[in-house]
Design brief:
It is a single chain. The protein has 186 residues and is of the alpha+beta class. The protein has one domain: 3-Layer(aba) Sandwich (NADH Oxidase). The chain has seven helices and four strands. The chain has helices at residues 3-9, 23-33, 53-70, 80-85, 110-127, 139-142, 145-150; strands spanning 45-50, 97-103, 131-134, 158-166. The protein has a four-stranded antiparallel beta sheet with strand order 1-2-4-3. The longest helix is centred in the N-terminal third of the chain and has 18 residues, at 53-70. Bound molecules: flavin mononucleotide. Residues 11-12, 14, 133-137, 175 line the site of flavin mononucleotide.
Length: 186
């Protein structure tokens, strides 16, 4: 696809087919992710990848329960409680793959670098006809020391971008965008 078509047609995908994602596909997407620019070219990212559906479903349940229990202390809008309390709401949308982008340091710009890697990965996925959705709701639970131990990543790494990946059941319509606020300087 042309780059502009990839950008125009990427969507947050929340419904996936049962088709699995293989390691080679994820490796290709991560190759695109690491081409992102990074401050001082430090490339401070790492990737934890789950392709085991049962484990992804288990994580979705545990992260959702943790989020519900901690809602009152968090900065999330309380209205999300309603959505999370729906037993049908699956945090990872039953996707067959989860890629977690981690910052290997607390460097001042490591999170920004990882966001750029995450966007590259999402665009590369769209280019292959695959859907993604960044699951910010899962970040606090994934970033807990016990979860990082489970993921076999060092405790001092920081979870930046949990991204689910799979074959979309359909491509959602665009939500559109507000006009950009531009301050032209003379
Ligand atoms: C930092 C970040 C966190 C997000 N967290 C979630 C999330 O937890 N669950 C979800 O369904 N979508 C999440 N999204 C997806 C956004 O809702 C989505 O990108 C936005 O509505 C625009 O839609 P589009 O990506 O299809 O253009 C997140 C996106 C970003 C960038």
């Amino acid at each position: 696809m042309e780059l502009t078509d990839v950008i125009l047609n990427r969507r947050a995908v929340r419904e996936y087919t049962n088709a699995a994602i293989d390691r080679a596909t994820v490796e290709r997407l991560i190759e695109a992710a690491v081409l992102a620019p990074s401050a001082m070219n430090l490339q401070p990212w790492a990737f934890a990848v789950l392709l085991d559906r049962d484990r992804i479903e288990g994580y979705a349940k545990r992260a959702k329960e943790w989020l519900l229990a901690s809602l009152s202390q968090s900065s999330y809008d309380p209205s999300i409680r309603h959505m999370l309390e729906d037993p049908k709401f699956a945090l990872f949308y039953h996707a067959p793959a989860l890629v977690v982008v981690l910052a290997k340091s607390s460097g001042t710009q490591a999170a920004e670098d990882c966001c750029l890697a995450a966007e590259n990965l999402m665009l590369a996925a769209r280019n292959e006809g695959l859907g993604t959705c960044w699951i910010g709701f899962a970040r606090p639970w994934l970033d807990m020391p016990a979860t990082k131990a489970d993921l076999k990543v060092p405790e001092h790494y920081h979870v930046v971008a949990p991204i689910v990946l799979g074959h979309p059941k359909a491509w959602p319509e665009s939500h559109g965008r507000k006009p950009a606020e531009i301050h032209w300087l003379r």
